[in-house]
Amino acid sequence: MIFETHAHYDDKKFDQDREELLSSMKEHGIGTIVNVGSDMETSRWTVEAVKRYPMMYGAVGVHPSETENMKPEDIELLKEYSKEEKIVAIGEIGLDYYWNEPERGIQKKWFEAQMELAKEVNLPIIIHSREAAKDTYDMMKAADAEEIGGVVHCYSYSKEMSRNFMDLGFYIGIGGVVTFKNARALKETAAYAPIERIVLETDCPYLAPEPNRGKRNSSLNLIYTAQAIAEIKGISTEEVIAVTEENARKLYRMEGK
């Protein structure tokens, strides 16, 4: 079964058909979904949602673009959320330099704080990094991130940079962008990274793959990503699905669940 490592079913784009969509996953080969918080509100939503949906697990954390108004009490609340049975990671956390706000010092402060939280509660981290490769890697090294483990989600850097992250023991999250004709760097990374270090994701409702590019994304589109990786690597789609599911269970420490 396909393992969806990064989704945002809390998003309002799913308000009209969320129940129907999630209940259809199994019949379409989607076995497990990790819903990922991006701020305090969506982290709280995730904590509640994993109780309602049997196939759903969750991550709690604050995205770098949402750190402007973070408070120390938020770290304490995330710590409480992380103790819930089906919460399997801290994320998504990291650095995003595409936008000028919040200022980089604020992003770095809360990235570091959330990595320390992950270490304290013994959960892997989900890294969001956009146009910030060196600072992200340097901060991960400084925080001994290899002791935490996790995934660089929606990977967007070079294949050479992927080696640095993999050397820290991190997985590379690949989504629908790998199906785009102009996604040369990601295709190169997909070819370069061992299949044992790759996990499948959508980042839905964003980044729908071909042939649904531009539409609302969902985990149902993961098959296109799996097919693209299979073609790049010269292996079967079934092997991509099987190995990436095993990888995801190792990533989120869910073997046997």
Automatic annotation (TrEMBL):
<dbReference type="InterPro" id="IPR015991">
    <property type="entry name" value="TatD/YcfH-like"/>
</dbReference>
<feature type="binding site">
    <location>
        <position position="203"/>
    </location>
    <ligand>
        <name>a divalent metal cation 1</name>
    </ligand>
</feature>
<protein>
    <submittedName>
        <fullName>TatD family hydrolase</fullName>
    </submittedName>
</protein>
<feature type="binding site">
    <location>
        <position position="92"/>
    </location>
    <ligand>
        <name>a divalent metal cation 1</name>
    </ligand>
</feature>
<dbReference type="InterPro" id="IPR032466">
    <property type="entry name" value="Metal_Hydrolase"/>
</dbReference>
<dbReference type="Pfam" id="PF01026">
    <property type="entry name" value="TatD_DNase"/>
</dbReference>
<dbReference type="GO" id="GO:0004536">
    <property type="term" value="F:DNA nuclease activity"/>
</dbReference>
<dbReference type="GO" id="GO:0016788">
    <property type="term" value="F:hydrolase activity, acting on ester bonds"/>
</dbReference>
<feature type="binding site">
    <location>
        <position position="153"/>
    </location>
    <ligand>
        <name>a divalent metal cation 2</name>
    </ligand>
</feature>
<feature type="binding site">
    <location>
        <position position="128"/>
    </location>
    <ligand>
        <name>a divalent metal cation 2</name>
    </ligand>
</feature>
<keyword id="KW-0378">Hydrolase</keyword>
<feature type="binding site">
    <location>
        <position position="6"/>
    </location>
    <ligand>
        <name>a divalent metal cation 1</name>
    </ligand>
</feature>
<dbReference type="GO" id="GO:0046872">
    <property type="term" value="F:metal ion binding"/>
</dbReference>
<keyword id="KW-0479">Metal-binding</keyword>
<dbReference type="InterPro" id="IPR001130">
    <property type="entry name" value="TatD-like"/>
</dbReference>
<feature type="binding site">
    <location>
        <position position="8"/>
    </location>
    <ligand>
        <name>a divalent metal cation 1</name>
    </ligand>
</feature>
<dbReference type="GO" id="GO:0005829">
    <property type="term" value="C:cytosol"/>
</dbReference>
